[in-house]
Amino acid sequence: MGIQLTAIHYVYLAFIVFIMALLIRRRDTTMICVAGIFVLGLLATETLGGSVSGVFNSFVYATKELMGTIMIISIIVAMSRVLMITGINETMVSPLTRFLRTPAMAYWGIGIIMLVTSLFFWPSPAVALVGAVLLPVALRVGLPALGAAMAMNLFGHGIALSGDYIIQGAPKLTADAAGLPVAGVMEASVPLVAVMGIVTTAAAFWIMRRDQKKGTWRDGLVSAGRTSGVFGEPSSPPLHPAILHPRMKKSLAILIPLLFLADVAAMFLLHLQGGDATALIGGTAVLILIFVTLLAHRNQGLEQITSYLIDGFVFGFKVFGPVIPIAAFFYLGDSAFTELFGTVLPEASHGIVNDLGVALANSVPLNGIVGAVTLTVTGAITGLDGSGFSGISLAGSVAHLFAAAIGSGADTLTALGQIAAIWVGGGTLIPWALIPAAAICGVSPFELARRNLKPVLIGLAVTTVVAMFLV
Hints:
Number of helices: 21
Helix content: over 70%
Strand content: under 5%
Order of helices and strands: HHHHHHHHHHHHHHHHHHHHH
Structural class: mainly alpha
Shape: globular
Number of strands: 0
Distance between the termini: 23 Å
């Protein structure tokens, strides 16, 4: 498994350390990411023109990769605006207020609902469903928007995605790489996922309540979210008053959730996952937007549909504007580097990030304690590209290596690497990976990542210690 590290690997690692330090200090990292892309391009192409072009091409690559998420967020925002202006949204969520009466109930209630939904349909489409319906309720009972985003993010992209017990995409990848049956890895992951989930979500809630009492809580609200018409006043007045009869408003408040429930049923029956599930929700949201707008605005409905869509897309691209340069840099850690700059890495390379993970695994002694720590660190490093899934095959391979030397613990080590990779890269720490929850809640993804950092690190530390006893 020996990988020859080159100057490109070391430069990439140096920029990662610099970027993470800036993120922790709440400083903007756009310029550093662009500089990193430029330097890597210069090393790869050895020409100034190739390096300069690489900066632009990396932006295009990142935008293409993120476009599905940008679209679903923009469309949900556009739909939510017409529902708010017509009052349908308030009518729709009012019955839920009896169940979520306090900030604590809202935090844990949103989290559990998000967990269950994400287990069946993965977190991104679940965020759109849960956030659109429950966020207004949470805000009304006093849970900050950032607190709601944390709950959706940690329970969905954290607990549900790292276990992935229903769809089983994650355990299949890691189990195949480790040469183990999927059922064995899933069984071994149960106590680890439970410890990680309980520790992280409890720590996040405790820190939030502590900071609120001390007056040091920052909600990280995004101005775009407050002017797009979803979480505040609309950015521009409607072209025509949106008036609905109370009976019609009540009927639509029942019909719209039923349409989304039909989407859920269709996902289950047709086995729709990931992008397909997101597309179904997005298409439904567009049709709801058109239907409600025509009903509410009548003769001005055609023009107002376009106005709502414009507001949604303006919001989506405002939120993603600072994210694209960062995503462009981290995507270079995977297959994007070869696609943009050609085959300049060693022949045995599986991408910059995976090479670094293999090098780490090969540079430490092989025993149970070191094995658990190494799998956690390796998984976390491979998660830095923001997908969570690109490096879990590596985690399985490294776990197989350690288990062969130790003589036991293959299932546990494989599950541990999977959990670390997905918690870091699947959407709880890397800013562009947790965009869906941040955008739906109208908060800064960077502030959400900063708030998640300490609870996730605590959870990873405790989970690693537990794994040491299970190996």
